[in-house]
Amino acid sequence: MASDVHEDHAVNAVLRIWDRLGLSNRLAIATALALSVALTAAVIIAAHISLLEAKGRVDARLENTLFNLSQMAAVAHQSGQPPGAFLKHYELTTEIQRVGFRGLGDAAHNVEVKNPSPPVLEAPAWFMQFSRLNDWMLTKPVLADRRKVGELTIAVSANGVVNDVWSALYAQVLVMASGAAVV
């Protein structure tokens, strides 16, 4: 009950101030509010589009990387080498958390390479939740002479993608805010 009285008092105070403003001041405030809403909507839409584009780029890059790795494993197998042996010398990019090969049968041929320094989330946690991106994990069978000899798995952190989109979006917001401040 007391909070209702307090809210009514605050609303009445705002209305009294509003009533004292001239038409040009009211129009300026209404324009500023409309601009703020429009800019906020533009930022949200830009963020969503940027995240979708980034996800598409990562998906394509992962498919390509996984295809190339499976071809390397098949060539290794055909030349008499353990199919996953080449992974021991494979350098992971910062976004890749781990790459692994699991052979059929002999566990000695299983190889897993982990990234010693996976990307740290630099974007705010709320932006990570907004992005709805999760870490990627793809698995592809390795075929040699049309026979499955094992599976390659690649895991990628979403942190790097979210950080990249956040940095670009933050820069856009600063430019828009400085533009709005000038107006």
The shape is rod-shaped
* SSE string, helices as H and strands as E: HHEEHEEH
Total helical elements: 4
Percent range of helical residues: 55-70%
Portion in beta strands = 15-25%
Extended strand count: 4
Walkthrough of the structure:
It is a single chain. With 183 residues, this protein is of the alpha+beta class. It is 58% helix and 17% strand. The protein has a 4-stranded antiparallel β-sheet with strand order 2-1-4-3, with helices on one face. Helix 2 (23-78) packs antiparallel against helix 4. It is rod-shaped and about 90 Å long.
Topology of helices and strands:
Layout: H1 2-20, H2 23-78, E1 96-103, E2 111-114, H3 125-131, E3 136-144, E4 147-156, H4 159-182
Antiparallel strand pairs: 1-2, 1-4, 3-4
Helix pairs in contact: 2-4
Describe what is shown at a glance.
It contains four helices and four strands; from the N terminus they run H-H-E-E-H-E-E-H. The chain has helices at residues 2-20, 23-78, 125-131, 159-182, and strands at residues 96-103, 111-114, 136-144, 147-156.
